[in-house]
Amino acid sequence: MIDHLREHESVKLLCELFDVATSCYYEFKQRKPDANRVRLASRIRELFNISRGSAGSRTIVSMLRSEGIKIGRFKVRKLMHEACLASKQPGSHRYKSAKTERPDIPNLLKREFSVTIPNQVWCGNITYIWSGSRWVYLAVVLDLYSRRVVGWALSNKPDSALTTKALDMAWEQRGRPDGVMFHSDQGVQYGSRKFRQRLWRYQMAQSMSRRGNCWDNAPMERLFRSLKTEWIPATGYMNQNQAQKDISYYLMNYYNRQRPHQANDGVSPVTAENRLKIVSGIC
């Protein structure tokens, strides 16, 4: 009884100090935690951590809705704020303007990035990544329909063997399709005899961006931007083996299967293609 009175006096003193009614304190004390809210906040933190701190409220809303959870952006934003979760955003980037074109390989794509079926248009490009004490080079092939990564390769040399290896992987992974248009920038790797012969063998039409115009291959630029700002450590990787494993997980798992994409109405590339299979039976 005495302890209860002492507690009451202490509560009363603190409430007077902070100008809060004692009834508010006791009401709050008796309030039960919202189990659904706790579970939701926990799942939001999990998704945020999976994205390595890159997912904002819009992305997390899309992820939660893909799991069958009906929720609005305002609530997600509020829960993220309460948990002190702030997504990291990429900075601005200025692109060079076009100068001259390569007449023998025209720009057939002409920025028509919206395609109706898979294996209609593929895009390719190369970027560089710091690994241990040297640069390594990543070549990626992207299917424009769903923005799905269908082929990739990593090497310490940015040559035609690298781009050809990525193309070979894409061709095999996608069931050796016919009639694909392959679009890239005007890098020497894509204009080499070896790479062009491989395109001819696979019966693919070749398209190239105008020289120095990154916007002509914007989906690839966006993929590399996401990879470098969302996933790759700021200091790079310790070695090439670590880079190989981590980049493989990002491209083939997180990016393809989990990360929502605006071009797919907020679902992942794999989910977008699976929806098309259900509707039309297209592989």
UniProtKB/TrEMBL annotation:
Recorded superkingdom: Bacteria
Any single GO BP term: DNA integration
InterPro entries listed in its UniProt record: HTH-like_dom (IPR025948), Integrase_cat-core (IPR001584), RNaseH-like_sf (IPR012337), RNaseH_sf (IPR036397), Transpos_IS3 (IPR048020), Transposase_IS3/IS150/IS904 (IPR050900)
Molecular functions (GO terms): nucleic acid binding
Pfam family membership, one: HTH_21
Residue ranges constituting the Integrase catalytic domain according to the UniProt record: 114-277
Protein name: Putative transposase
Organism the protein comes from: Vibrio ezurae NBRC 102218
